[in-house]
Amino acid sequence: MSKSICLGVIGGGQLGSLLCSAAKKLKVKTVVLSDDKDGPAQHFCDEFIHSKYDDNAKVKEFISKVNFVTYEFENIPVDFLNLIQKEKKVLPSPKINKIAQNRKLEKNFINELGINTTDWVFIKSAEDIKKNQHLLPGILKSNTLGYDGKGQFVLNSLDDVKQDWCFTNDYILEKKVNLKKEISVVIARYSNGTMSSYEPIENVHKNQILYKSKIPADISDRIFKSAIQHAKKIAENFSYVGVLTVEFFITQNNELLVNEIAPRFHNSGHLTIEAFNISQFENHVRAVCNLETIPVKKISNAEMLNILGFEINDFKNRSFKKNEFFYDYLKKEPREGRKMGHLTTLKD
Ligand code: ADP
Ligand code: MG
Predict the structure, then answer these.
(1) Residue 166 — pLDDT band, cuts 50, 70, 90?
(2) What is the mean pLDDT of residues 132-143?
(3) Residue 303 pLDDT more than 60?
(4) Which listed CATH number (3.40.50.410, 3.10.580.10, 3.10.50.30, 3.40.50.20) goes with 6-90?
(5) What distance, in Å, lies between the first and last C-alpha atoms of the chain?
(6) Residue nearest (by alpha carbon) to ligand 1 atom 18
(7) What is the Cβ-side half-sphere exposure of residue 214, based on CA atoms within 13 angstroms?
(8) Atom 9 (ligand 1) nearest CA
(9) Is 172 in contact with 121 (CB distance < 8 Å)?
(10) What atom of ligand 1 comes closest to residue 147's alpha carbon?
């Protein structure tokens, strides 16, 4: 039955590529719509359409070719997703995307569910920061369009607020957490309400970019269970369909705080490709295309290392052991800090 299904994917980066590879395994065809003509997913999908979001003819062509539409990143204009939704089902729902791409709406949503985040406040001016000095040292984050630490400024004191900042964008100011650890929970929810969660993954960031992920996470039973419970509550309240990731902070006092939600599969979940019976990408394709639900089972412990920038050149010339799985995203040019590939190592 799945032979005739065609999934439209907006975005042509590495997440889109890995999604297309998983779809291929399920005999689901993929058409990628990307505004980057070099988008690496062109090497992994069945059809690649390079188009700006406002190119009506190309967007129409994309819509006409697919049965369902999903996306690999959350910063897509919601109006564009709503437009597509008029003709083809977009999953996860654009309503969720609207919340997840806006830190203020996202944190309000989480707090209203009774789940803790860092202390935070919405910021429109330097004056607003002054009024909320109790949140310093803090991190000023652009309210929208941030990823991999982009659009973030550490404010140790009011002296770090530069005179020439003109606050043309909205921000939030968040208290800087004395982090013990970061973890993430990747969870799939199907349209019939079935949920299937991977165990929490422990993450280490360098310069605000994910560096390493591993399972098992070195956390208490209480935190293990609460993190999954929170992820389930969030997915349930969104009536979510697809794979969702919740990023958490664990403070030095063992408090569990939600950092942010990604309405998608996640870099930290790459190890699910080898470490589980079904990967986060396969789970997403199954949920979005309304295929059979398969419960998640762990096969092995694992560690994943992100390969950034020019590091990729060393990996291209290396040989790998049987328990090592190297992915080259086939990006045209390495750039400092750019995610170029990853290596998953299975552990006992
Ligand atoms: P992005 O959207 O760029 O992923 P995040 O808010 O997840 O933004 O921030 C990226 C990383 O920066 C986090 O994973 C964490 O390591 C660090 N970070 C962000 N906010 C805080 C905070 N309030 N306190 C301590 N570290 C933080
Ligand atoms: Mg993040």
Answers:
(1) confident
(2) 95
(3) yes
(4) 3.40.50.20
(5) 37
(6) 208
(7) 15
(8) 149
(9) yes
(10) 3
